[in-house]
Amino acid sequence: MSTAGPQLRFCPESNDLLYPKEDKDRKVLIYVCRNCGYSEDAPSDNWCVYRNEIKHSQRERTVILQDVRDDPTLPRTKDVTCPSCQNHEAVFFSASTEEGTTLFFNCTACGHRWRDYV
């Protein structure tokens, strides 16, 4: 017993792989070459669309990771004052929710965390 899955499709002009894409105007699935722009309609018996939407609770969205002040990839600012120790340097990052954007700060001296609603 064999299970036939989606087959790879190749561009007849450049032999590059064709990638699935939605033609929003016509509301159909097409295959497109990223190299030369060639496109063709996908056969309707070959359509397989899956959408996985993950819903996070408010608590999950606002979880602040431990030790973010040591993360070298996060930006730092010296334009804030820590409400706990009055230090003027903090690591910061933003998060967007239904309520708007929130800036999270973490003091580089004492580790105190606070928010600024933008």
UniProtKB/TrEMBL annotation:
<protein>
    <recommendedName>
        <fullName>DNA-directed RNA polymerase subunit</fullName>
    </recommendedName>
</protein>
<feature type="binding site">
    <location>
        <position position="33"/>
    </location>
    <ligand>
        <name>Zn(2+) 1</name>
    </ligand>
</feature>
<dbReference type="GO" id="GO:0005665">
    <property type="term" value="C:RNA polymerase II, core complex"/>
</dbReference>
<keyword id="KW-0862">Zinc</keyword>
<feature type="binding site">
    <location>
        <position position="11"/>
    </location>
    <ligand>
        <name>Zn(2+) 1</name>
    </ligand>
</feature>
<dbReference type="GO" id="GO:0006367">
    <property type="term" value="P:transcription initiation at RNA polymerase II promoter"/>
</dbReference>
<feature type="binding site">
    <location>
        <position position="85"/>
    </location>
    <ligand>
        <name>Zn(2+) 2</name>
    </ligand>
</feature>
<feature type="binding site">
    <location>
        <position position="82"/>
    </location>
    <ligand>
        <name>Zn(2+) 2</name>
    </ligand>
</feature>
<dbReference type="InterPro" id="IPR001222">
    <property type="entry name" value="Znf_TFIIS"/>
</dbReference>
<dbReference type="GO" id="GO:0008270">
    <property type="term" value="F:zinc ion binding"/>
</dbReference>
<dbReference type="Pfam" id="PF02150">
    <property type="entry name" value="Zn_ribbon_RPB9"/>
</dbReference>
<dbReference type="GO" id="GO:0003899">
    <property type="term" value="F:DNA-directed RNA polymerase activity"/>
</dbReference>
<dbReference type="InterPro" id="IPR001529">
    <property type="entry name" value="Zn_ribbon_RPB9"/>
</dbReference>
<feature type="binding site">
    <location>
        <position position="36"/>
    </location>
    <ligand>
        <name>Zn(2+) 1</name>
    </ligand>
</feature>
<dbReference type="InterPro" id="IPR006288">
    <property type="entry name" value="TFS"/>
</dbReference>
<dbReference type="GO" id="GO:0001193">
    <property type="term" value="P:maintenance of transcriptional fidelity during transcription elongation by RNA polymerase II"/>
</dbReference>
<dbReference type="InterPro" id="IPR012164">
    <property type="entry name" value="Rpa12/Rpb9/Rpc10/TFS"/>
</dbReference>
<feature type="binding site">
    <location>
        <position position="110"/>
    </location>
    <ligand>
        <name>Zn(2+) 2</name>
    </ligand>
</feature>
<keyword id="KW-0539">Nucleus</keyword>
<dbReference type="GO" id="GO:0006283">
    <property type="term" value="P:transcription-coupled nucleotide-excision repair"/>
</dbReference>
<feature type="domain" description="TFIIS-type">
    <location>
        <begin position="78"/>
        <end position="115"/>
    </location>
</feature>
<keyword id="KW-0240">DNA-directed RNA polymerase</keyword>
<comment type="function">
    <text>DNA-dependent RNA polymerase catalyzes the transcription of DNA into RNA using the four ribonucleoside triphosphates as substrates.</text>
</comment>
<keyword id="KW-0805">Transcription regulation</keyword>
<dbReference type="Pfam" id="PF01096">
    <property type="entry name" value="Zn_ribbon_TFIIS"/>
</dbReference>
<comment type="similarity">
    <text>Belongs to the archaeal rpoM/eukaryotic RPA12/RPB9/RPC11 RNA polymerase family.</text>
</comment>
<keyword id="KW-0863">Zinc-finger</keyword>
<dbReference type="GO" id="GO:0005730">
    <property type="term" value="C:nucleolus"/>
</dbReference>
<dbReference type="InterPro" id="IPR034012">
    <property type="entry name" value="Zn_ribbon_RPB9_C"/>
</dbReference>
<feature type="binding site">
    <location>
        <position position="107"/>
    </location>
    <ligand>
        <name>Zn(2+) 2</name>
    </ligand>
</feature>
<dbReference type="GO" id="GO:0003676">
    <property type="term" value="F:nucleic acid binding"/>
</dbReference>
<keyword id="KW-0804">Transcription</keyword>
<keyword id="KW-0479">Metal-binding</keyword>
<dbReference type="GO" id="GO:0006355">
    <property type="term" value="P:regulation of DNA-templated transcription"/>
</dbReference>
